[in-house]
Write a structure and sequence with these properties.
By secondary structure, the chain is α/β, with parallel strands linked by helices. It has one domain (about 10-340, about 395-525): Rossmann fold. About 30% of the residues lie in helices and about 15% in strands. It is built from 15 helices and 20 strands. It has an 11-stranded mixed sheet, with helices on both faces. Strands 1-2-5 form a 3-stranded mixed sheet, with no helix packed on it. Strand 11, helix 5 and strand 12 (about 220-225) form a beta-alpha-beta unit.
Length: about 525
């Protein structure tokens, strides 16, 4: 029970909030509504304004996570969420003592492939970062089919000729809320850094390409994220958005599978039923059980992933970056050493060779030379390396390269190579292959080692302090200070490890050159 005499109170546009006092003068305000619950008639519509309340609203616990099927509790990617609901449009704020003003603002977007996760993950506790002088905001948004379903009927009723991307619109609504309200917490609305990991980092790139988010942020950090890649004429892929037509086709298939003939009927179905119905075409060599009762394919993010809708996203991020039609703001972007830890793999040499042949055709021999395998065990690693490069590494490295050569704002690139000290007897799905795992920099950036009871060392704590200081310096001044920006032919890359090192730590040049050719941009980079 919080002592009312020490309970911090802040007034926002919709009413008074009672928060939580934290050490070092930090105040926390959790579960703050930034938009109306997107339920009933508001399902698959842009977010609407939150309703005001009377009296003081308790802001002392996280709001529900978006409806989802979470990973197992013994996964690195389980965030401890137990409350799930369509009524999920809540954010959290950590800030300094009352009376402070002009604090840089950092708005965080969580991981989860747009399918799972929440801002309530203990890794994202913003208290330690806030103690360094920033105001931290973390955001829930709609996920999966509730956040990204496209359908011809939704397109017809939208008024802008598109559908899908409701989860991205939620993020934009949260950024608009920050502009209107963050001064009440001592934050500077004119100095906002948007940062995120994995799908959250992918959202960072997408929002840079959206005219709807113009002016809502001033710097960006994309961690372990799918970066920029062309849209697919077919169905989605973790680095590639779908065309609107492909998204609508998937939506029609979902409706048919659910046995409904209209969007209004779908709005009347339970959220769990909509999320759990697996499309038959998701079966394939890369399919995996992301959650109980439903299967998702690495190459078919069916009806639950961003689409090029002509409204939120007028064009795919790769062409937008190449054309300079993005928010021209300073960027830090980087990859973990083992991005494959968050991805499935192919079990056998035969399955791997078949996949490469079917997918890459006349380029198959080149792919097999770059990602060689002669045994089943080698095929597992090769398939992992291949898909990690395609989904995470090439697209992030390319975003940094394009920015450094075509935009006026600087770009910094890093690789996070520290292997967190996972105990050898830890009951974790990913224990034996995690290494410097996908998203592994997050507890270092947030200083949240207590989220995992591992044997953290003084070296880990020193690395965390260095990362936190670089991120806070960047949020404050637009320069991380710890290493130089890319440019003028120089390739200074920060390798974050026990002993951080600045050098030519670029991703494998031969592999990156292949993906340049594969995506048809070799002559433009």
């Amino acid at each position: 029970m919080v002592n009312i005499e020490t309970t911090p109170v802040v007034t926002v546009e919709t009413g008074d909030l009672e928060g939580l006092p934290k050490p070092s003068g930090v105040r926390a305000f959790l579960g703050v509504p930034y938009a109306a619950p997107p339920v009933g008639a508001l399902r698959w519509r842009p977010p609407q304004p939150a309703e005001p309340w009377t009296g003081r609203r308790a802001a002392q616990e996280f709001g529900p996570a978006s409806q989802q099927f979470p990973p197992p509790a013994n996964s690195l990617y389980y965030g401890g969420e137990t409350r799930f609901s369509e009524d999920c449009l809540y954010l959290n704020v950590w800030t300094g003592p009352e009376g402070q003003t002009g604090r840089p603002v950092m708005v965080w977007l969580h991981f989860g492939a747009y399918q799972l996760g929440s801002a309530g993950n203990p890794m994202y506790d913003g208290a330690a970062l806030a103690a360094e002088g920033v105001t931290v905001v973390s955001v829930n948004h709609r996920l999966g089919r509730l956040g990204f379903l496209a359908h011809p009927d939704l397109t017809a009723e939208s008024g802008y000729g598109g559908s899908g991307n409701y989860g991205l619109m939620d993020q934009i609504a949260a950024l608009q809320w920050v502009q209107r309200n963050v001064a009440a917490f001592g934050g500077d609305a004119e100095n906002v850094t948007l940062f995120g990991v994995s799908a959250g980092g992918h959202s960072v790139h997408n929002l840079r390409c959206s005219p709807l988010s113009a002016g809502l942020f001033h710097k960006v950090i994309a961690q372990s994220a799918p970066g920029v890649a062309p849209a697919l004429d077919g169905f989605g892929h973790p680095a590639n958005p779908s065309t609107l037509a492909a998204g609508e086709q998937a939506g029609v298939e979902v409706a048919r599978l659910l046995g409904v003939s209209s969007i209004e009927e779908m709005r009347g179905l339970p959220a769990e039923q909509i999320m759990a119905a697996p499309l038959p075409r998701t079966e394939g060599p890369w399919s995996f059980a992301l959650f109980p009762g439903a299967t998702i394919s690495l190459h078919i993010f069916d009806s639950g992933y961003p689409v090029i809708d002509g409204h939120v996203l007028p064009r795919d991020p790769l062409s937008a970056f190449l054309a300079g039609e993005v928010a021209d703001v300073p960027m830090i972007a980087g990859n973990a050493g083992n991005e494959a830890s968050g991805l499935p793999y192919l079990d056998t040499l035969g399955a791997y060779r078949d996949y490469v042949g079917e997918t890459f055709g006349e380029r198959a021999a080149e792919v097999l030379a770059l990602y060689p395998a002669a045994t089943d065990e080698q095929a597992r690693q090769a398939s992992w390396d291949l898909i990690a490069d395609q989904v995470f590494v090439w697209s992030t490295w390319t975003a940094a390269r394009i920015q450094s050569s075509r935009l006026s704002a600087p770009a910094w690139y890093y690789r996070f190579l520290r292997r967190p000290p996972i105990p050898s007897d830890a009951d974790l799905v990913e224990r034996d292959f995690a290494g410097a795992f996908h998203g592994g920099e997050v507890p270092y950036v947030f200083g949240t080692f207590d989220a995992w009871k591992w044997d953290w060392t003084d070296e880990d704590r020193a690395l965390s302090a260095a990362l936190m200081h670089a991120w806070v310096d960047f949020a404050r001044d637009g320069d991380p200070g710890a290493w130089p920006a890319l440019g003028d032919g120089a390739l200074p890359v920060m390798a974050w490890d026990v002993e951080p090192d600045v050098g030519d730590h670029v991703p494998d040049p031969a592999r990156m050159a292949f993906w340049d050719r594969y995506h048809g941009v070799a002559d433009e980079l």
